[in-house]
Design a protein that fits this description.
The complex is a heterodimer of chains A (about 650) and B (about 220). Chain A has 28 helices and two strands. By secondary structure, chain A is mostly helical. Chain A has a two-stranded antiparallel ribbon with strand order 1-2. Chain B has about 220 residues and is of the alpha+beta class. A four-stranded antiparallel β-sheet of chain B has the order 2-3-1-4, with helices on both faces. In chain B, helix 3 crosses helix 4. Chain B is rod-shaped and about 155 Å long. The chains are: A mainly alpha (about 650), B alpha+beta (about 220). At the A-B interface, helix 8 and helix 11 of A face helix 2 and helix 6 of B.
Chain lengths: ~650, ~220
């Protein structure tokens, strides 16, 4: 059952095993290709790339909304069946062919170069908006060095008579995020101009990134000692602090309480699969580059398993920490809500303090309702339910910049916790950016966009400057909406297509037999039955299913986006608006161009060969008619 | 005799008169609400007559402080309708004429002026010692000359740019050193080719006659 597509000339394009061994001993002396200083740097870089902001702000939300502890089951199953095989595949192919993503796919088959180009486009678009999130984190970090955090209280209005109305209607954290940070406009069409403070933060984010990647992995390898380990230290500190706060355990219990009925819901499995896939940063091309700098006999199988395990563990650990803090915040809100109700009762009925407490609140309310029902009605008491507060589950930027910052203001010594939290987010994001940028720089070098004589510092510098300039879209007034647009479309569908093509390319074009032999050469034993089954059938099948469902969901749903509009009727709630028509063009560019790069490049490379074959076969034979059509069509296109 | 009867009547009637002056929802009175347990928790003190006396004295102090010409006394502050919540109404009478009430606005002005002192006398805050109808004055915002975030930004960006320049300069120096080293190696090779069978001593430009092949001329 070994399906192998014809692939002539493969032997000429790749180095044989003997040549690889020779290169290994020679390269040890020369400095032609960058190398890792030691295995630790490589592992830390890969861990840093995989562990990112998604582990902190997407996984806890998914876990809590899909049945808590029960979500672990689909997550772990898909981690093993989908994440680990894809990771091993990328590591092995990079280590074997010793090139970046573009080089690897061109080597396997010239028509597959489109996969590398698509990876580059996706990495580029994601780098653009990801560093804007870093800029936001830096803004909050800079603002944390004050005794009273600026998002803990509403500012006074112009004539100092009261609080700013926008802030009073919503909350200080919302106001600080939407008005003082983003200065957001009511819809995506109104661009609001550049916000100078965010431009400064964007420049500083790109400057910090530049200094870390200035000489490639030589500098990145040193930076990851800090950026990959610091998040774990901070998470542990937060765990200890969180567990000593009131109400933290109720948060953790809420997170992990299993609800096994969720397992029958297909969305749970879909979300678990998507989370595993995006969390592993597969199909960006960065992992292939990183593993190509390894020595040939590095044990990539062990690396893949270790990194997957670390990634899974980090997701669960981060979820626990986040939910201790969310439990604290929910308990705080519940106490405030109940306290407000109790105060209202005490004030209206002139009861002495301490008469109504949390324990006897319900009985007292009932008895008072019996005797004075109209008065109770007039008071408009709020219903306080702890579970409602706990399940105000937020994900993404809302979790980090609104919910968590609010919780921090309630903790004693808030500036310290704020600084720690935002340093952690910054390190998590920066280490992911290393991989993203690697996936952009190496293909650019392979394509020959920069002359070979230019030093590495200038190529990285020019890329950073250009990306910074393009990234100015995201620091306008409407920047937040552009960012979520990019996040939903640039980073989702193209990656699934690329990963599917990667698997098919390696297994069926490169040849699973040749791949098995390569792995045996590199690590000493053939990959066992598990890898064979997953590479050949299971993982591509899972990719295909996720892609189909994702595509159908995205295409059929009406695209709405949430806006912050002070003029809207139910103001503090975000107003949902449909996208204007011209946005659909942008969406097509974001999702379509990388995806179409795969068949497009194949066509582009195929045309000269096809023309040659057609000319040789003679112009007017029957089987050359489709050929003539084909040439005509591609001539029109190119 | 008549004077005595009048005095007795006055003494009997004064409290009654005071009661009629101080009423709930009086037009010139304010309602006060005190939440001691909320403010102090375990260290809460009990509200009794002595505390009430302190309140009246503090209010008299506030009135004196605001209207420096008139000397208010504890008797000028009349309290009524105390509840278990610890809330009560009070009115302020004029020192000259004990039947005349001080208008609401004047009382508000006095309270606002000395609010901080009144709160501190009872170890309470604006929220736990409420004068219903008098809003707490909002704290003036502290506006530093440079926003603190700009200072941190300056430090970070300065350090990063210094680092970038240092790295660029060091790689430039490294490249120059490598080029120089390569140039010297290149010179070595050239000289070796020119000098031919000489020993490879580059710096020595003098033809060493000890190694010429002139033995063939001395075949004696």
């Amino acid at each position: 059952m070994r399906l192998q597509l014809p692939n002539p000339g493969l032997e000429d394009r790749i180095l044989s095993h003997e040549e690889l061994d020779k290169l290994e001993t020679e390269e040890a002396g020369r400095g032609d290709r960058p190398k890792w200083d030691n295995k630790t740097q490589y592992m830390l870089t890969c861990v840093g790339f995989c562990v990112g902001l998604g582990n902190v702000w997407r996984f806890p939300y998914l876990c809590q909304s899909h049945g808590g502890g029960a979500f672990m089951i689909p997550f772990l199953i898909l981690l093993v069946l989908e994440g680990v095989p894809l990771l091993h595949l990328e590591f092995a192919i990079g280590q074997r062919l010793r090139k970046g993503s573009l080089g690897v796919w061109s080597t396997i088959h010239p028509y597959l170069a489109g996969v590398g180009i698509a990876s580059m486009f996706v990495s580029l678009m994601i780098s653009l908006y990801y560093n804007t999130i870093m800029a936001w984190v830096m803004w909050y970090l800079f603002n944390s060095f004050q005794e009273t955090l600026p998002w803990s209280q509403c500012p006074l209005n112009y004539n100092l008579t009261g609080l700013v109305s926008e802030c009073e209607q919503s909350s200080p954290v919302d106001y600080f995020w939407y008005r003082e940070t983003l200065n957001t406009t009511p819809d995506i069409g109104a661009n609001g101009g550049l916000q100078w403070w965010m431009v400064l933060c964007l420049v500083s984010a790109w400057a910090v990134l530049y200094i870390c990647i200035i000489r490639g992995i030589e500098t990145t390898g040193k930076a990851v000692y800090v950026t990959s380990t610091l998040p774990y230290v901070v998470l542990s500190i937060f765990l200890i602090r969180g567990l000593t706060l009131k109400g933290s355990l109720s948060g953790v219990v809420f997170l992990f309480t299993p609800n096994l009925t969720e397992l029958t819901n297909p969305t749970t499995w879909l979300d678990a699969g998507a989370q595993v896939f995006y969390s592993f940063s597969i199909a960006f091309g960065g992992l292939i580059s990183f593993s190509s700098y390894n020595s040939v006999h590095n044990n990539c199988e062990q690396d893949a398993v270790i990194i997957s395990a670390v990634n899974g563990f980090t997701s669960v650990y981060a979820a626990t920490v986040i939910y201790t803090i969310i439990g604290f915040r929910a308990t705080e809100r519940f106490d405030n809500c109940l306290g407000g109700n109790i105060l209202a009762l005490l004030n209206t009925f002139d009861l002495p303090e301490g008469n109504v407490t949390e324990s006897n609140y319900d009985q007292v309310l009932q008895s008072l309702n019996g005797t004075y029902p109209e008065v109770i009605q007039g008071l408009n008491l709020k219903t306080c339910d702890l579970n409602t507060f706990l399940s105000e589950g937020v994900e993404g930027t809302g979790l980090a910049f609104i919910v968590f910052t609010e919780a921090i203001t309630k903790m004693p010594a808030s500036p310290v916790w704020s600084v720690l939290f935002f340093i952690m987010l910054f390190c998590l994001g920066l280490s992911s950016m290393f991989g993203n940028i690697e996936g952009v720089l190496v293909p650019l070098q392979d394509l020959g966009v920069f002359p070979k004589s230019w030093p590495k510092e200038s190529t990285t510098g020019i890329t950073c400057v250009l990306c910074c300039i393009v990234g100015l879209i995201f620091v306008q007034g409407s920047g937040n909406y552009w960012l979520s647009l990019f996040d939903s479309f640039a980073g989702s569908i193209p990656l699934l297509i690329i990963a599917f093509c990667e698997m098919v390319g390696v297994v069926y074009l490169y040849g699973i037999d040749r791949f098995n032999d390569d792995i045996e050469f590199m690590i000493g034993h053939k990959p066992n039955f598990f890898w064979q089954i997953t590479w050949r059938f299971l993982s591509p099948a899972i990719m295909l299913v996720i892609f189909v469902f994702y595509f159908i969901t995205k295409v059929t749903e009406t695209l709405l986006y949430k806006t912050w509009n002070p003029e809207s009727e139910n103001f503090p709630t975000l107003e949902e608006k449909p996208y204007p028509a011209w946005i659909y063009v942008i969406i097509f560019i974001l999702a379509g161009i990388p995806s179409l790069a795969v068949p497009g490049t194949a066509l582009f490379r195929c045309t000269p060969v096809c023309i040659k074959n057609c000319n040789a076969a003679g112009f007017f034979t029957l089987n050359s008619f489709p050929c003539v059509f084909f040439i005509y069509f591609t001539r029109q296109v190119s | 005799m008549l004077v005595r009867i009048l005095v007795l009547l006055y003494l009997a009637g004064a409290p009654a008169l005071a009661q009629t002056l101080c009423q709930p929802n009086a037009s010139n009175g304010y309602r006060v609400r005190i939440s001691i347990k909320t403010a102090l928790g375990n260290q809460a003190y009990e509200w009794n007559e002595n505390e009430m006396f302190l309140f009246r004295a503090t209010m008299a102090f506030a009135m004196r402080r605001c209207y420096k010409t008139e000397t208010y006394n504890v008797d000028n502050i009349i309290v009524c309708n105390q509840t278990l919540r610890v809330s009560f109404w009070f009115v302020v009478t004029s020192p000259e004429n004990s039947t005349m009430l001080i208008p609401k606005a004047d009382v508000e002005k006095a309270v606002s002026m000395s609010r901080h002192r009144i709160n501190n006398a009872f170890l309470l805050t604006d929220r736990t010692l409420e004068f219903l109808g008098i809003h707490p004055t909002l704290a003036e915002p502290v506006n530093p000359d440079t926003p603190p975030w700009l200072i941190v930004f300056g430090v970070v960006i300065g350090a990063v740019f210094a680092g970038i320049i240092a790295l660029l300069v060091s790689s430039l120096l490294q490249k120059r050193r490598k080029e120089k080293g390569m140039m010297e190696d290149g010179q070595d090779e050239e000289d070796m080719q020119v000098k031919g069978v000489e020993n490879g001593n580059v710096l020595d430009g003098i033809y060493n006659r000890g190694f010429t092949d002139d033995d063939r001329f001395t075949k004696l």
